[in-house]
Amino acid sequence: MDKEENILGREKIGKLILKFSVPCIVSLLVNSLYNMVDQIFIGWGVGYLGNGATNIVFPIVMISLAFSLMIGDGSSAYLSLKLGEKQKKDAAVGVGNGTLMTTIVSAVLCIFTLIFLPQLLNIFGCTDALRPYAMGYGRIIAMGIPFMMIGTSLNSVIRADGSPKYSMVSMVSGAVINTILDPILIFVFKMGVEGAAIATIFAQFITFVMNVVYIRKFKSTKLNKNCFKFKGQVSRKILTLGISSFITQMSFVCVVTIQNNLFAKYGAMSKYGPEIPITVLGIVMKINQILNSMIIGVTTGAQPIFGYNYGARKFDRVKETLKRVLGISLAISITAFILFQTIPDKLIAIFGSGDELYMEFACKAFRTFLLLCICNGIQIPSGIFFQAIGKSSRSAVLSLSRQILFLIPSMFIFSNLYGVEGILYAGPVADLIAFILAVSFLIYEVKNLSKNSDKHDAIIDDTSTDNQLANHTIITVSREYGSGGRYVGRLIADILGIKLYDKDFTKMLSEKTGYAEGFIESNEEKRKSSDTFNSGYYGGLNNTDELFIKESELMKKVVKKDSCVIIGRCADFILRDRKDVIKIFIYSSLEDKIKRATKFYGVEKSKAEKEVRKINKERANHYKYYTEREWGNPENYDICINSDLLGVEKSAQLICDIIKEKEKENLKMA
Question: Three-class SS of residue 500?
Answer without folding.
Answer: strand
